[in-house]
Amino acid sequence: MYTREETIRRMNGLGRAGAPFFFVISHDLEHNLLFERKDGGQGRSAAFSLPLGERGGLRDCPPLPEQIRFDPVPCPLSRYAAAFSSVRAHLLRGDSYLLNLCVATPVKTNLTLPHLFRFARAPYRMLLGPDASVSGVHGRACACFSPEPFVRVRGREIATFPMKGTADAATPEARRWLEEDEKENRESATIVDLMRNDLSMVASRVRVKRYRYISPVETRGGTILQCSSEICGALPENWPSRLGEIMMALLPAGSVTGAPKEATCRAIAEAEDMERGFYTGIFGFFNGRDLDSAVAIRFMEEDGANLVYKSGGGITVMSRMEEEYREAIAKVYVPFDL
Asked: How far is Cα 215 from Cα 180, in angstroms, rounded to an integer?
């Protein structure tokens, strides 16, 4: 694993050389993994799938069980309420305007992490472990099947796609609610403003290309709608030689922290009773010319003999505790094509 400073130096060097590599950066930015494409068998249990490239496709993964069992065991409402009360106090003091509060949910399931990597329908997928050299921050194997890109670079254009807002498509008014709800609109506006400012630290001509577009996501429990925005800008010509600096300047990802970032991260650390590890970090691939990366959400990890799903949602002063609790639990799903 590499520290933040080691990661910056290593990514800068690989970018300058035009050497393809995969990477994983933890939420705290201090426990990071880099895999050069030439590594061959090193870290055999690290697998990635992104639009720009794949590594370790697990073609020998066992088939899915005929009858899938996937039963979340949500944390008690009282436990979530305590965390919610803590973050609400920070919001009322003005320490934060928007804060992403996360919880860990044990799941009783007959699925394995390789199943999740191999069969989950998502544009960005990652598997780490059980090899101790590549497993998670706490030595735990984990899998991620993320729908949310972090930054994408094509040529010199950099774009980021913060995702804010989720609704159950089975509800007839779901789309209209996502479009018109004041709390959802304020969350999007806050994060878009934050990410526009973040991109302005590394790019020029930053602009909001698409604001609050809605996409369907299929799950075993039905279709959900998710709201995203697209912000883009122009990188300097020598951006690959500064790749590590650029990525770290944009982290941690605003959509899974909040605004303002520094004070919000302190409030998160005070409220949450779990270590995020690689959850809400990022993972990605640089192919020597362009880059894909994703926010590590829709995330499961081993905890002893159990699997735990980490999920969360944005909290503002307008949030209602019971609604936010239900949203965090509703995000405990696996998008299989069945």
From this structure: 16
Range of the domain at 94: 4-330
HSE, CB side, 13 Å, CA atoms: give it for residue 100: 29
Are residues 285 and 291 in contact, defined by beta-carbon separation less than 8 angstroms? yes
Query: What is the token pair recorded at 4?
Result: 């933040």
Considering the domain boundaries, does residue 116 fall inside one? Answer: yes
Domain-embedded: residue 336: no
Answer yes or no: are the C-beta atoms of 26 and 277 closer than 8 Å. Answer: yes
Inside any domain, residue 335: no
Any domain includes 338 = no
**Strands in 155-279 per DSSP E:** 157-160, 163-168, 204-219, 222-234, 258-259
What CATH number is given to the structural domain containing 326?
A: 3.60.120.10
Element of type H or E holding 317: none
pLDDT, averaged in runs of 10, over the chain (338 residues)? 96 97 96 83 75 82 88 94 96 94 95 92 90 66 94 96 74 76 82 93 96 74 77 96 97 93 95 94 97 96 91 92 92 78
User: Could you give the angle at which helices 182-200 and 243-250 cross, rounded to 10 degrees?
Assistant: 150
Specify the number of domains making up the chain. Answer: 1
This prediction's pTM: 0.90
